[in-house]
Amino acid sequence: MRRLLGKIRRADAAYGLIADGDKIAVGLSGGKDSVALLALLDVYRRFAPNSFTLQAFTVRLGEPFDPAPLAAFCKERAIPYTVRDTDLLDTLRREKNPCALCARLRRGVLSNMAAEAGCNKLALGHHRDDALETYLMSALSEGRFYSLAPKAQMERAGITVIRPLIDAREEAVADLCRRYALPTVKNPCPVDGHTRRAEIKALIREMDGRFPGGKDNLCRALQKSREKEETP
Description:
By secondary structure, this protein is of the alpha/beta class. It has a single domain, classed as Rossmann fold (3-Layer(aba) Sandwich). The protein has nine helices and six strands. A six-stranded mixed beta sheet has the order 3-2-1-4-6-5, with helices on both faces.
């Protein structure tokens, strides 16, 4: 946990993620990344340079999904928790590659929930592997380089999206969940494991096998480019 907290602290300092008095909504999908993020931010707020509060929000897509373990997890930490039911799954089933649309729709619902609750920031559990996959997927599929920003403004909702785990390894996040037996709940996905993102993940594994250390080098290059952009 200490190393991941260090990653959050450094990302906070490098990208100016958290300001004093922030009310942070955490998107809690039930997956390992979001659950780990909430657990880490709960600890981080005890020694962070700026004081902030936490709330957690889950978007239920439209199929049976039991958030009880997540509710208990939040209650243990005295973190307010809200679940919102939607019919997004019906829309997503009609899409051939629904990942980007799903992310955009869920982020929109979460930002609205956060604004309604008086939060000014929305924390998402994307890590460095997500950032690299998005970067390569946009280049190969759309002919442009696009990556997940550590901090981005959602003008319509007046919410700032932050990604405190942006420089953390996925394997470290997964290890944290195992070590501390953090509760995860599978949120239904109509194309789970059969997406363009899954193909990119497999491509990165193959590339890293042929060029040992290649993945880490790409991640470091991406991190350096972000930090350069943040430097005045």
